[in-house]
Amino acid sequence: MPGPAGRKPPADKYDERRRALAESALLTLGELGYAKASLREIANNSEFSHGVVHYYFEDKHELIVYCVREQKSVCVRRYDGVVADSTTPDELAAGFADKLVETLTNDAAMHRLWYDVRTQSMFEDRLREVAAEIDGWLEDMIWRIVSRYAELAGAEPAMPPSVLYAILDGLFQQALIGVTVGREGVLDELRALVNALMPTMITAPVAAPA
Amino acid sequence: MPGPAGRKPPADKYDERRRALAESALLTLGELGYAKASLREIANNSEFSHGVVHYYFEDKHELIVYCVREQKSVCVRRYDGVVADSTTPDELAAGFADKLVETLTNDAAMHRLWYDVRTQSMFEDRLREVAAEIDGWLEDMIWRIVSRYAELAGAEPAMPPSVLYAILDGLFQQALIGVTVGREGVLDELRALVNALMPTMITAPVAAPA
DNA sequence: CTTCCGTCTTGACGACTGTCAAGAAATCTC
DNA sequence: GAGATTTCTTGACAGTCGTCAAGACGGAAG
């Protein structure tokens, strides 16, 4: 009975293994979705056997929650660089848009899983906590971007964080669907759109800030 | 073999029954979601037995697609009245916002099902057609509202239909989640938000149209 | 080497699923 | 009324699921 409780050997090895399992689970989870991804299928697309899951996780639910939380916790830090390094509003907007497009192509599976989990949270109580938590992370992420953008422009965000997040999330979700079904031009449209929309999200900048 | 093909008696009776079955299926579908709603559970929450589904529908997939398409085809006509009757921009915006709030409380289950189906369409090919179709309906619906709003204001929509739809859809989806988890004040916030946001969706109105 | 313990595999269990066939019930036709 | 046809119920089928127990493997400790 080594599982979750009393552990003698390197306790880090345990967490490391959990992460490895969760990461390889992401492959199947992001391809089949929350409902259709069985533990056997997840195990088949990995180096593990289907039984090992219950050695590292209580049940399927815990694996999935761990997986999406782990992924998203790094996801929400993706724009920290551009926020910190940009010196003009336009540079920030362009960097933001570029990274949006980049993650849309590179991490499409993860984003699909996230939207799946959030939607399922409306039907399954046990998912609500993690969904609400991550939604909060993402809202904060957007707020960091827009408020810094406003600061660089000598202005203020024109809308509260929740509204900014909802709007950008709606645009991103449509783009994700577009990428998933293979629609052409989605990426360039999203990039242009974000660049065009950012100025509308702050109050009119003061002409001479100094 | 009376099913889908050759029918002698009132062919309308057949369609009528399909609609009745689909409508009672909505109850369970909107409560449990696409994946977790089994045919037996759907039948239990209705006046039908679990086997009758295959008399009126090819399979589970066809039932669900029929159900969501039927529901949404009336859903997208919800704002036709306010669009036709409003004589000022503000009246249109207020009527739109009111009806948004109204459907959010009355038809929450249907909206949950729709978002579920659209999300699942990213994982399941067979859902993509109906999801894309309905997304188109909704985009047209939003376009009718905003373009009429702009017309009443003597202006033009400031963004293309797809962008307007994505933005409003993002806001609505967040509000739906809020309603589902029982967050307070969501409805009033959405109403105020829509009223405040509508002016930003059109170009600056011409002062004296005549 | 033997012993022990953390790690993992294998195989099985019961529950649940969509589907369908066989026949009962209801309705219509004459 | 009888007979035919549409409509529906019931029960079973094969398959899949999450879960878990029994034991195999591996390396470290003695």
TrEMBL record, chains A, B:
InterPro entries: BetI_C, Homeodomain-like_sf, HTH-type_TetR-like_transc_reg, HTH_TetR, Tet_transcr_reg_TetR-rel_C_sf. Residues 38-57 bind DNA. SUPFAM superfamilies: Homeodomain-like, Tetracyclin repressor-like, C-terminal domain. Coiled coil: none annotated. Residues 15-75 form the HTH tetR-type domain. One of its GO terms (molecular function) is transcription cis-regulatory region binding. Keywords: DNA-binding, Repressor, Transcription, Transcription regulation. It comes from the Bacteria. This is TetR/AcrR family transcriptional regulator. It comes from Nocardioides humilatus.
